[in-house]
Fold:
Amino acid sequence: MLIREELCVGCGKCQPYCPTAAIHFAGLVSVVDQDICYECGTCLRVGICPVDALAEHPMVYEYPRALRKFFSDPSATHKATGIQGRGTEESKTNDVTGRVKPDEAGIAIEVGRPTLGMGLHDIQKISQALARAGINEIEECNPIHSMIADPATGTLKEELLDERVLSAIIEISVPKERVPVVLQTIKEVSKEVDSVFMLDVFSTLGPNLEIQPDILQMITDAGFTWRPNAKINMGLGRAWE
Amino acid sequence: MTHSLHREGSIDSLERDFVVFIYPARGFNYKGNQPKVRHLVEIIYQNEPVNMIATALRENLYSEVSHEEVLDTIENGDETTRVYSCFKSRDNIKQLLTEFKEADEGISIMVSGLVDRVRDMAAEVGLSPHTINLSLGIQGNTKRLPPADIRQFTTMCGHGVVSPHLVRDHIRKVKTGRTSSWDASVALAKPCACGIYNPYRSKEMLDDLTPVYTVSRW
Structure:
């Protein structure tokens, strides 16, 4: 985003809307710090500017800066060059797709959430740690997969490393017996990342919403706990195509 | 994206906070889903949602857009529309799930909320939930995070575009009498592009927090 200086009246109303505090006063007007802005578009979308001084950055749809918008603006519908989609449907349609089977578990690492955002070098730290541990099951439909230059090492494409986004999700599906090694790897790399990440584990359920006991034991053994609220697929979907 | 999974706050507060998704599956039930999604949204409207967005329009419940316009956009749009909604009452969710089951439209439905409550409701309605997505919380450099009492607002927007600075700004406005806790909550819901920010819960939390907060600047 940018603020057109010639229009800005310096009211500062846009400043608190920026999740990453990229907007600040410079003299009598507000300006956007282009290094910090991750192009989520929130300031523009809420229509807070009384004089329409907010505008999109001229490079916002140019690779690699386009990644910022693509990963950060929830309403963005375009695709950045060479990157597929924004994420997958993961557990939300598992009753229809059967993507994660009863003997498997899905693990999602939501880097940059909540709100902090992150440099893509944080994604690389995690993807390299996963690669070192022999974990190569990153979802092919997830945009992270196409950002990796070398799957053997988990190294990202070099031109991406200076980019900054609100969040990106590394999604992995593994046989249940590999959950401990994935969680242990994540626990270790969590000490190295500059930002934060939210961690999810999803699996199919038994009768009466019984969570698979071995999954819970693996989570406990890895030194994690689960929150009392969760996201639950109610089993009402079916395929017809 | 797993954006309804990590809502923070007290158990008591989360008792009045449920998120419901209507989610067609690409390649499995996309074709001709529009009238089915429209029917499910009609059911949502009849069960007192506290917020809702259809991705075809991206206007939340507190915008100027009418229900008819939302429904028409869904029915006349393409097959990619997903619907995100939020409820504050267990009774409303139970009735909603009862009507969803009877409608039998075959579209995936997700409910985010306290696991024990969803388990009870599923049993009462006669549903067999298929998959659970558990949150193992926030990891990494957590000392950079805003405090937990601010995060209970910001995590109601799973994408994280409700800024902690905006929360502090509105606490200050409520505290100084420049706005009400309800108007502040509707304003805080506006940046959330998925329509799952719960303004009723937000109002309760603002009423609790405002007396004890001192905010000199956002």
